[in-house]
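Pasting two entries for a bug report.
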Amino acid sequence: MPKILKRLLIAVAIAAALIAVVAPIPTLRMHRRFLQFSPAADAPNRRLLDTDGRVPMASWMPAPDTSLGLADAGLALRRLFPFNAVGTERSYVRELEPLPMLWESATPDTALFPDARANNDPRAMFDRNRVFRSVRRGLTAEERAYAGNVADDSLWRVFDRAAHAVGADLVAASFIAPLAMDIAHFEMPIPRISRISALSDGVAMRAALFAAAGQRDSADAVIGRLYAIGVLLHRDGLNTMEGLLGRRAAMNAIAMRRSLHETFPGPTSPAVLAALDSVRWRDSSATQAARTRSESAASAQSAAPAALRARDIRALQSPSVARAYRFEALGVLSMSACADLGSLLFGPDADVTAAQAAAMQSMPRTAAESAYVALLVHQVDSARFRALNPSGLARAFRASNRALAAITFNPRLRVCADIASSAAAM
């Protein structure tokens, strides 16, 4: 063999060895950081459900209607909380006509509801929790007309019906079947966050009309429907973002109910306020816990991937953690293979595969949810990503890992590198 060819082969072998050793290092570093601060990390402390999975103040919610199926409830919920604008790259998203909130772009005139603004300042923002002060003062004709227009919106027919749902299949409502298996959970679209505030404002207007007519219990029931909708989204959302949005809607309802019973107290008000205090205390505890975790972030950086995986497995198996958070934990658990060299090269550990197998058996209620759980479990082997404005270094990084993945028949090397380079480009 000619010397020049021999030297070339030696150089290629050395380059291949260097790629095999060096290429995974940025991937491991990026994913360990992601695992430490993943959206699933706070799930146990941002719960709304009791420790046994029950809903607090369930008697406040409308009576459950088992004739409303998971699919219909999911469609109603997705139309109430549609996704943000979806580009052509998300062709797997189902097209649904959002329910219009005609009042969303028409906030009350500054002359209306002065009692519902800080210091009665017309320049201050409208505060839905103060609207019952306007009711106690006596609504003007203009205020009553505005609230009446909001209360007459056709959206409330869907809203009131969905509030009776026992569950919702948001997977079938959100994605085209069969669900593509080459997407990742964190690339999926998120709902319009502003809808939570607009919907809560609308509920306040409806409740104000009942309170103005002396029907406090009817006002309380209207607010209870918002609580039920929030609980539904919190429990059956697709990910942590939707779970948190549902929790926010429920907490908005709790704040409104407190204002109603403080402004118009009745025989049952002390018990109602005590129940509200217990849930509000839980919310404050979660906020404090999040602050404490933030302050100890430096020590968290030393956490081993195995400990972080155990955290997500605990969240996945806890009955007090809503399904939305458990979906997120399942997705993060799948991607945790990218943060550990052994899992990256040889596949997930036994504890991870056991937790995934249990989730595939216990979590899905429908065929659509089965496909979604399968996607969350297998995305580390099948997802495909595009880097956002990748640099030359990022392109070289992706190319080297893709070459290594092809040589070793290990798709995780490609998937994990693609995610790391896409995140670095953001």
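Entry 2 (this is the one that rendered wrong in the viewer):
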Amino acid sequence: MKFQYFLKIQDIKNVRWTKWTDLIVQTILFCLIPTALIFSREKQDWLLNLLAIQYVMGIWQMASSFISVLFKGPAFKKKLRHFLISGAYLLLLVTGVTLGAKTNYFNGGYEASPVILWICFFVPPWTLAIYYYSITWLLVNPRYKKLSSFLPHINF
């Protein structure tokens, strides 16, 4: 008995609506970013809004990537790369925060540079988010394939 039949998912690879749903949810999350920043511009909680959207987008993309890797969906290698790099980033982030808390690095008067914190908390997640969005975009909207030069006026 295959695992796919156990979950009653017969052919997740070729279902078109899954790609569209993934793209639409990611697009909505990307559109929430400027909206959240505009509405929290006068308040001081814009950073928390950005982190909350980043958190939701990360969960969505990790779940989507995991499902696609589990069932060997379209763009398997790219999504596997995204999943492994995201997992490594999360592992390093959790390890760094845990070690910093256990060794009293933060309580001992040592402070990390704000630039390093910005780089650690924003550059890798947003790079991964944009990379995964581009994978999903290219699955839904494939690039134009060049027709062969042999009898180009006849399309089969």
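Dev reply: Rendering is fixed now. As a check, the viewer should reflect this: The helical segments are 3-6, 16-39, 46-70, 76-102, 114-140.
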